[in-house]
Design a protein that fits this description.
Length: 460
Amino acid sequence: MPGMTIRTRFAPSPTGLLHIGGARTALFNYLFARHHHGEFLLRIEDTDRERSTDAATQVILDGLAWLGLAPDQAPIFQSTRQARHAEVAYDMLAAGTAYRCWLTADELRQMREHSTRVESPWRDRDPAEGPPGINPAIRIKAPREGDTIVHDLVQGDVRVANAELDDMIILRADGTPTYQHAVVVDDHDMAITHVIRGDDHLTNTFRQLGIYRAMGWEPPRFAHIPLIHGADGAKLSKRHGAVSVLEFREQGFLPEALCNYLLRLGWAHGDDEILSRDEQIKLFDLDGVGRGAARMDYAKLTHLNGVYLRGADLLPLCDDLLARLALRFPVAPEASARVLALLPFLRERAKTLMDLADSAAFLVRTVPLPFEPKATALLTDEARDLLRALGPALAASDFTPAGIDAALRAFADAHGKKLGQIAQPLRAALTGSTASPPIDATAAALGRTEVLARIGAVAG
Ligand code: GLU
């Protein structure tokens, strides 16, 4: 398709959450458009007015923004386009590729109850003949012979016999479009060139192609990507773990890690595991998308998140962490410098921002700290006596990590102790736990006043 501007779209229904399957679909559409210097659009499929709310739309917009997948234009709301959907249905009527299907209330009820193929007696009758006033839905006049083939960019050629496709309704009796009809009219009007979506939509494509054919419109290329499954092979759902993008955010995953993971779930470029967004854009194409169902591996995602945490820029990471900590307890104003100083150590062991928040909590709290039982056990009478004496010795140091280290060693020597016999009680006093970054760096990050206050709180 030389010279053509590639345009993709993500078309979620606003149901109140952005599923990670949807996020992956958005990511593939985004990367494909970027790779081809095209445009990535967002269409909110809000025709179901009862389920669609502004809040649900906001969840999608927030989720996409967080993932760095903001669309290139303002979102298009499908519900605003109903007049256009109707217009196309009437065009099809006029062209004879659709017909008014007059149904009695009884027939209508039967149709609703059985989603079986409907052979309407009105298909080949003169539209003017219809009895006025009752339920004239508009149905497409689907071909009965031959096959419809989808030349899918992921699934290959998929064929269905036209005899299996019924004359589906395109415009309901109340004038509203059906889902299949609205999707086609919108994709056409938005000049979408590539429809990349979950393979649960593959069967819809045969029906949708009928509308393109009836209107004489060139259909887009289709790429149906395998859905995400849980480890047990069943379609991914709540019982497997988190499924909504916002849940992953709350649990402390970084958007870059989640995107990288979702990309690799079902798409490969050699053995490359970690790819920056720029590399993703450069390398992504549909021929790397696998046909097999992708299996969600939470442990792998968590591992990848740890890798991203260690490579993240410190300042934004620190801000995110402080915001999470502020939800738990009041955060001291000097906390931010402390967290920033120890973040390089803390993130070595963390897999998520929640792990980081747990391990950084001691830095932002004020005395008295909560104590783990193991830390309390370290604070024996002897240890408290040592800490009481240690306070002035530490206070006299320059409070750099090196100065603190030297003071601790000198103090241990003077008292005939090993360094650990001093460092461990000090760690307990300063952090309320038995594990922390190196004690000299920890004490330096807390600063002289706070260190003395914390020693005083246990040994004073
Ligand atoms: N609104 C549909 C969904 O959320 C997607 C339609 C499409 O991508 O064609 O599943």
